[in-house]
Amino acid sequence: MASRTSSPLVHPDERELDLFVIMSALADPIRLSIVVTLGVHTEVPCGTFELPVAKSALSRHFRILRESGLIRQRDAGTRRVNALRREELGRRFPGLLDLVLKEGAGREVAVAGAD
Amino acid sequence: MASRTSSPLVHPDERELDLFVIMSALADPIRLSIVVTLGVHTEVPCGTFELPVAKSALSRHFRILRESGLIRQRDAGTRRVNALRREELGRRFPGLLDLVLKEGAGREVAVAGAD
After folding, report:
1. A18 contacts on B by Cβ (under 8 Å)
2. Domain coordinates of chain B in residue numbers?
3. Do the Cβ atoms of A100 and B19 come within 8 Å?
4. ipTM of the complex
5. Interface residue B101 vs chain A (CB under 8 A)
6. Which residues of chain B make contact with A91, given a CB cutoff of 8 A?
7. CATH classification (class only), A16-112
8. What contacts B50, CB < 8 A, 6 or more positions away?
9. How many Å lie between the alpha carbon of A65 and the closest alpha carbon of chain B?
10. What are the pLDDT digits (tens) for B40-85?
11. Which of A84, A107, B34, B74 has the most CB atoms lying inside 10 A of its own CB?
């Protein structure tokens, strides 16, 4: 999903994280599945999540997750790789991510090429 | 808002509460204001929240909050009174309501007739 023409990946600062923007991001079942999957696998490229969604819709979901502060994205070669912002979320909203991963258990999706 | 023709007020059981239904309910700014206001006032009749919303839309917001399990509603004479389900929410999702009330501070609305 990364490309030479991509605009820079903007991530909100830890102090800017907004609980209600995060809740809004998690209110979508596809985005929740992505977050729960990232709770199991550490770093996952965008294209490897086995989700029943078109690539353009998936890009939008990843952008919403990144802009909410739930995930950090970085470009590694031709791939865009995703990870949860565990430490920052834990400092700003103690217990929230644990609760989300616990209550969301079972909503993980398969990841192509994962163990 | 209560009336003799109202259907019974259905509340989800504590075991049925769903974190993501709750987050979805809180993703709306009007509903968030209602919840944060109920964090300050114990029991508030529907019609007394000073919100810039038509009565029918307000009824819908209260219904969504009740069906998510965030609030309990009861009819007292001609009024429908609302309260947070603090104990049940605290048992099911420890820390969540405290986080919501803390992060939502400042989003309270005035309540007609309140001190």
Report:
1. 103
2. 16-112
3. yes
4. 0.85
5. no
6. none
7. mainly alpha
8. B109, B110, B111, B112
9. 15
10. 998 999 989 999 999 999 999 999 999 999 999 999 999 999 999 9
11. B34
